[in-house]
């Protein structure tokens, strides 16, 4: 009986650790600023004005909640941004509900942050450079890929310690250097 319980616990833990469904179309990888600008409908500098819970993706045993990120546009470097703000979706939270009353393995509330590899999690007040594509679905805009977002720290781009070569190269630039590269 103890072996059966151990196997059952192992299966539950393995199921809870399965990767979440894909969010956004990140099939393309961009090799540098030129490729990002070419693919983007707009490149803007903005500040996160707020975050909140968006739509839920019910996958049966796991419910993923999308985070809505509202960004106030400060400057448009390329393309057109018809409004003074925009909203994008990011990965948010996951809740594992296997049976009534089960609270999850990782958090007493049964919910934890849901993140994709290489994706930055934005918070209110963050300032960044966004390489955006129009989307036919609400909220209307999306990041091109994980390498399409850079946090601004004064005149520098923040070192987010992401391992992607494109990210490493671009984060070594100053904000002025990135702006010049985008405008070329």
Task: Summarize the helices and strands and which ones pair or pack.
Elements: H1 2-16, H2 33-39, E1 42-58, E2 62-79, E3 85-96, E4 111-113, E5 127-134, E6 141-143, E7 149-153, E8 156-157, H3 165-171, H4 175-183
Antiparallel strand pairs: 1-2, 1-5, 2-3, 3-4, 5-6, 5-7, 7-8
DSSP summary, beta strand count: 8
Number of helices: 4
Helix content: 10-25%
Taking all Cα atoms into account, the compactness measure Rg is: 19 Å
Number of domains in the coordinates?
A: 1
- Structural shape: globular
Low-confidence stretches: 1-25
* Range of strand content: 35-45%
Largest sheet: 8 strands, antiparallel
In CATH, the topology is named OB fold (Dihydrolipoamide Acetyltransferase, E2P)
Q: What is the CATH class name?
A: Mainly Beta
Instruction: State the order of secondary-structure elements, H for helix, E for strand.
Output: HHEEEEEEEEHH
The helix/strand class is alpha+beta
Mean pLDDT: 82
What would you say the CATH architecture is? Beta Barrel
Q: In whole angstroms, how far apart are the ends?
A: 68 Å
Quick structural gist:
This protein is of the alpha+beta class. It has helices spanning about 1-15, 35-40, 165-170, 175-184, and strands at about 40-60, 60-80, 85-95, 110-115, 125-135, 140-145, 150-155, 155.
